[in-house]
Write a structure and sequence with these properties.
4 strands; globular
Amino acid sequence: MRTIDPKPGAIKELMQSVNPEAPIVMINLLKFNAQAQYPTDSDHDSCTGAEAYARYSAVAFERIKQAGGSVSFMSTCMGTLIGPDDETWDKAILVKYPSFKAFIGMIMAEEYQAASVHRTASMENARLIMSEELEN
């Protein structure tokens, strides 16, 4: 199933069920469009989905740092051993945040919101899974 944005109410639901001050790790699974899908009235130059994601990342990664977070892992996906045949990914990224509250503040920031047009244009499919890091 193609999904690129949170389900309506998902953030509010999570906010009510988790400690908003506890550290989190966001697991990002990304599948890029071959060609970025900007709105028809957009003035953005044509590019690939991966290039549009790089435009988004230039802002998002800086906003992550400003929120006290960090990209702790980023990789190119090579194949799926367990999973639906029609679900493949281009990139996996783990982002640590000091809290869910810090994550929410980051995505609500005006600069981040403006850059999100590139993320939306870049994505064919995505998963964003909030997790809590466990100690070994």
